[in-house]
Fold this sequence. Notes:
This protein is of the alpha/beta class. The protein contains seven helices and nine strands.
Amino acid sequence: MLRNGLQGSLFEWMEDCWLAADLDIKYSVLVAVYNSERSLRELTANLIDTLYPFSYEIILVDDASTDHSFTEILRLCTENPSLHYYRHDTNKGQSAALLTGLRHSKGEYIVTIDDDLQYDPADIKRLIAEEASTSADIVYGITNSRKGSWPRKVSSALVKRILSPIFKVPAKGSSFRLIRRTVFSLIPIAELQNSILPEALFARLDLKIAYAEVSHRERKYGRSGYSFFKLAELTLNSIRVYLRYLGKNNAR
Length: 252
């Protein structure tokens, strides 16, 4: 992992760092970036417009992109001090990239959003409003009109159909979400690295969950990096991580 030319191990941190929120930062927006050079400027501009006048930071984690995403990230970060970057030396996957961003975030609330502009950054305000009205620990952005290719939609729906009864979690969660920072003090964060379903771990906690209706648009640039086989691999990793977590807690 590289930031400002410095190398570091993914797991070199103190346990209490997870709660080290900066009182001056309300929202930390985490974006896992992979081969998204064409969407980054539009994405960050929309995020900045949406988050004003809140106190915020935007953390872009480049997951070893093979295009010019990292060059664009460097350019954007020099233009706005609220943008920060980290870079993986090898591709580790979206969850690991978000975990890297989480490690370095300081906000009272964590917002995760994809880099492909299918979720509208303006809808972050809907997540914030829902949290304000419900005091929820997690607010998911959900949509009834998900866009994308039919193989992607079918494979995603199949993965959720398989995992939902196993993990006893609602099938309508999404990667667009607002999470209260204190949630992460209750679970072993390192267990999330290879999981596409952190809700499997959240489900064992007494958390208040809320939902906000958001829009979902056609992908504007490029194509999804998640094939059916990639999703299947991540699904197996999710099951493995969850079972290991259960084993550790039952042994206590």
